[in-house]
Model the fold of this input.
Amino acid sequence: MSQFRAHSVLPGFNLALGFTLLYLSLIVLIPLSALFVKSATLGLGGFWHVVTGDRVLASLRVTFFTSFVAAVINAFFGLIVAWVLVRYTFPGKRIVDALVDLPFALPTAVAGITLATLYAPNGWLGQYFTAHDIKVAYTPLGIVVALTFIGLPFVVRTVQPVLADVEAEVEEAAASLGAGRWDVFQRVIFPAIYPALLTGFALAFARAIGEYGSVIFIAGNMPYISEIAPLLIVAKLEQYDYAGATTIAVAMLLLSFALLLAINILQWWSSRRGTR
Amino acid sequence: MNRSTLTALTLIAALFSGASHAAEIKLLNVSYDPTRELYQDYNAAFAKYWKAKTGDDVIISASHGGSGKQARAIIDGLEADVATLALAADIDALATKSDLVPANWQTRLKHNSSPYTSTIVFLVRKGNPKNIKDWNDLVKPSVAVITPNPKTSGGARWNYLAAWGYALKHNSNDQAKAQEFVSKLYANVPVLDSGARGSTTTFVERGIGDVLLAWENEAFLAVKELGPDKFDIVAPSLSILAEPPVSVVDKNVDKHGTRKVAEAYLEYLYSPEGQEIAANNFYRPTDEKVAKKYAKQFPKLNLITIDEVFGGWTKAQKTHFADGGVFDQIYAKK
Done:
């Protein structure tokens, strides 16, 4: 306790901690525990029965797989976008910068309808894919497109400030010491932004798992193929099966939590290794 | 200002406030998606009627959304005075999952509390290129059918049951054959939207599929809004009588003190004026006179009812749409 006091510049640790706990309880813990309580009405056997149903497993697979692919795409291209926005000046940069936030602001249903319109077989973009026999809308590929769209800002916005902190001089110094471009990236820049990139990836991933609005319009919602877990939750609610719906939600929550925890541990481990 | 002028002023003020003292009543109608246009017209008409009858102003708000979602919202505390939903099962839920309405709600108004009815028809591309005439054309391998997911859409349940009813009739009531028929039909569905409006968009805007199974009123509306040069309506040989029911939400009207006006609101739906508005919005009127007047508008169909063929909503819901029910089996077999 005294350790905390010694490090804190601002007074009122007890008050601040109390406030934090209260706030987190109201906003996060109470709703989530309500979820657990409701799903607990089924008992462990019932929980297991719902979660291991063929259709639920298939939908969880679709959700987590497409979310992962979308997050990987975002990590890669988001990094490039952040890089360009930090390192270069060009006309219209502010507009491009603002564009990145658009997926945050747009209602997800609007995003879904727009993307479905574009990528449908008769859409602006879809027609070219169709010409090559690639179906985007109404397949898992369509889900990935929607999730990539909504996840982009998470990577860009987490990497951007960290990248801005890595001064260009550092790169120049590395170059003058004889490092090639790849070496500079791999040994100087990447280790610095790696934790932020991982955070961005995790955020985009987590956001994608819970996404409903934009996906249902482009997914096609075919059972076992392009049916996402949140849709099954809605289907269960439609039957007034609150317990079943919350059970899937709890399963998703636990899986997401495990994944985020794993990513955090990875981050912690890599940052410790980095400081050594 | 002396005392007498003050008294005079008070009197005048009292007079004026008395004159404008006609009560202002607020009513919330919680309805499902495709009734948007219907209730827009109807609410204006009822407000006028109520003003003429009682001198009171009634302001009606309408909330629209998926029928099941709306029912859940009412159960969870949305203070609807009246519920006008897509299926009896959803108002039943108000009675069974909470005590907002009594169990016998459906007997309180005429025609199973359904002032207007509708049915399921086919919407096809102009000229009907795939020559789709009846349900058995929908199971041909080359036909793509658009219908929403019955697990999430009330309208889709009617579609499903209509197809089932057709198959039963043509296979001398063999349930296994009916299941095979419906399985084949759903094998032809490339996109399962979560709601009826979503399916309409998929079919109309995205150009996917050869035939859309739709509420009759939605099909008429699509043709009217998007141009008769793009789509045709095909009436199958047999379809299902869809009865979208209405009810006062007792607990809420008693709390708000709006029972009288809420009941009048629903009864007026049965009046010739209300029936005309329904017919103009492509719902089939139940009043015989009005029905005769608009007979030309609606194709003559052989209509089965859910009570006759499926033993009522509760049973149909349990057999076909509950988890592990027939609909799930259709997809599990693949």
